[in-house]
Amino acid sequence: MPEKIFEKIDVVGIGNALVDVLVHTDDAAVAALGLTKGTMQLISQAEMEKLYAHIGPATEMSGGSAANTIAGIASFGGSAAYIGKVANDQLGKVFRHDITAQGITFNTAPHMDNLATGCCIVLVTPDGERTMNTFLGASNALTTADLDAALIGAAQYIYLEGYLFDPPEAKKAFYAAAETAKAGSTKVALTLSDLFCVGRHRDDFQKLITTHVDLLFANEQELCAQYQTDNLDAAIAAARGHCDILAVTCSAAGAIIITPDEIIKVPAEPVARVVDTTGAGDLFAGGFLYGLTQGLPLAECGRLGTVAAAEIISHIGARPQQPLAKLAA
């Protein structure tokens, strides 16, 4: 079979392919389902099916951290691809449609076992609080066999999602993807994803950061946890030099971009009203990576990240509702 040839791609994302199932409900309904309001829990397929059967009308929106980032890059006008695992079921078709409709390359073969597409059933109460029930499903079935070396080789960057570091086979796929990237001219970006990921995988993350990662994304809490300090300046000093670029988000304080030679502070983009902060870090990474792959200065890359994050926190859902290219202009 002849080797596949791809045009140059800005970024290839690798992560958990999930569909968010959003349900607007009230406190009484959350309690009646036996859930603790405002929490996030991992659930089994049986629990997911039972919960899905008992909720009211829902809105299904494709999600997953790295997939949100890739969607942001495409919204800016960048070229992007995604590697992630869904099943050949209804939610899998929703995910595949949503991502390819943006012009994003998504060629990963569907999982054909009895494992359903991963989803996060999110109950949203009138006060905006989200109760999240995550079934990882087929997203956990990603292996090295799902990697497309030609696709990775065509990219300026691959973007790895820390959330996918739990399954042993997926972890192997991460290292294999990073090795494939390093064998060519593709650079490697990693997001630490969240505090719990850092707690579980600190040593493995550190190994990956020091050997393969060119660009590291983290929020201030994640970076402090990774370098086991309560002081952000100390964490930055410890991390500095382990990779070419460190991008740290600091919520309402904006972001800090660190290289071995400079530190750039980027103010947050003003927002009329914060509705939902879910996905803010994902979209910051999308804006930053878009700018970086277009050859823009780091300060402008940071600004594009804050523009994307501001758009995403102004509404429910972790995908842009208006073209980010228009907002950036």
| CATH architecture type | 3-Layer(aba) Sandwich
Give the tally of structural domains: 1
- Give the total of beta strands: 13
Please tell me the overall pLDDT. 92
The CATH homologous superfamily is termed Ribokinase
Proportion of strand residues = 15-25%
Q: How many separate helices?
A: 12
Report the top-level CATH class: Alpha Beta
Main beta-sheet annotation: 8 strands, mixed
Which outline best applies?
Answer: globular
Question: Fraction of residues in helices?
Answer: 25-40%
Q: Report Rg.
A: 19 Å
Notable characteristics:
329 residues, UDP-N-acetylmuramoyl-L-alanine:D-glutamate ligase, five-stranded mixed beta sheet, alpha/beta
Describe this structure in words.
This protein is α/β, with parallel strands linked by helices and 329 residues long. It is built from 12 helices and 13 strands. α3 crosses α10 and α8 crosses α9. The model has no long low-confidence stretch (mean pLDDT 92).
Give a topology summary.
Elements: E1 9-14, E2 18-24, H1 27-32, E3 40-42, H2 45-54, E4 59-63, H3 65-76, E5 80-83, H4 90-100, E6 118-124, E7 130-135, H5 149-154, E8 155-161, H6 168-183, E9 187-191, H7 195-211, E10 215-219, H8 220-226, H9 232-239, E11 245-249, E12 255-258, E13 263-266, H10 280-293, H11 298-312, H12 324-328
Parallel strand pairs: 1-5, 1-8, 2-6, 3-7, 8-9, 9-10, 10-11
Antiparallel strand pairs: 2-4, 6-7, 11-12, 12-13
Helix pairs in contact: 3-10, 7-8, 8-9, 10-11
